[in-house]
Amino acid sequence: MERYSNGNKYEGKIPGVRLSRIKSLKSLNLGDCDFTGTIPSNFGKMKNLTSLVLQGNSLNGTVTEALSKIKTLEVLDLDDNELTFLPRILGNITSLKTFSVNNNKIQGTLHTEFGRLTNLEGFFISGNEFGYMIPSELGQLTKLRDGFDVSNNQLMGSIPPELGALTELRQFRITGNRIAGTIPDSLKALSRLRVFRVDENDLVGEVPESVCLNIDINEATAYADCNEVACPCCTHCCTGGSCQCVINSADPLRCAGTRL
Q1: Given pLDDT bands bounded at 50, 70 and 90, which one contains residue 37?
Q2: How far apart are the first and last CA of the chain?
Q3: What are the Cα distances from residue 225, in Å, to 173, 175, 215?
Q4: Does 260 fall in a domain?
Q5: CA distance 209 to 110
Q6: Predicted structure pTM score
Q7: Is position 215 within any domain?
């Protein structure tokens, strides 16, 4: 069986035992329902699963460690729930290409073990309560293309220079944290950027000229707190969470935030 999905408003606990009996299941989409409780540990028995989408429910608690047993899993989408913790062992799901837990209540540190997810093309953890630092090990995710988004958390420390190794990256977002220090020149290697957001942090200095050379304002958007971070290539400057378009362009769509 290729897919088990629904567009209905099912509610209650996810029937993990029943679903885990479908041994040939490859794609499970239970998004936008009214499921509550925790993610069933029985899911670890679905050895052929490549995609698990549970976004838009009211799931809570710790993401089950049993998911680490699914060696075929490529997509894990847990956005828009009430999850509170990610176990380190999820770093063992090295088949993952998309890891998305946006808009939950996840606390704790960003585990260094996530640097093992070297097949990832998208890493999305915005809108949570992650603290401490961005681990330098995330610079090992060199296949990241679709996005690196750690925005709107409680991250501190500095931007690891190792993130300059993410050369295929199109979107770099660290907005809305407490990240300090300067922007490392190593980010000049991110030559494919279409979105560059470092606003609402405690950064100082300037966006290095070598980084600005990769940001064509006709094709990309760049945001910074321009009073604290000089940014000649920024399309938008931000103060107190409010951002204003600063480019000179006859194209009104460039200032409408259409490429955020």
Answers
A1: very high
A2: 37
A3: 14, 10, 17
A4: no
A5: 30
A6: 0.92
A7: yes
Query: pLDDT, tens digit, for every residue of 71-126?
Result: 999 999 999 999 999 999 999 999 999 999 999 999 999 999 999 999 999 999 99
Q: Give the separation between CA 206 and CA 195, rounded to whole angstroms.
A: 17
Give the total number of structural domains in the chain. 1
| Dihedral of alpha carbons 204, 257, 145, 90, sign | positive
Nearest to 197 by CA among 237, 143, 246, 240: 237
Structural domain boundaries enclosing 233: 3-255
For residue 86, being part of any structural domain is answered with yes
Is 250's pLDDT higher than 60? no
- Give which of 53, 241, 257 is closest to 152, Cα–Cα: 241
Burial of 258 (0-12, 13-18, 19+ CB in 10 A): exposed
CA distances from 202 to 130, 139, 208, 228 (A): 17, 22, 16, 8
Q: CATH number of the domain at 119, please.
A: 3.80.10.10
What pLDDT, on a 0 to 100 scale, did the predictor assign at position 23? 85
Nearest alpha carbon to residue 79 among 43, 114, 52: 52
Q: Are strands 98-100 and 122-124 parallel, antiparallel or unpaired?
A: parallel
Is there a domain that residue 9 lies in?
Answer: yes
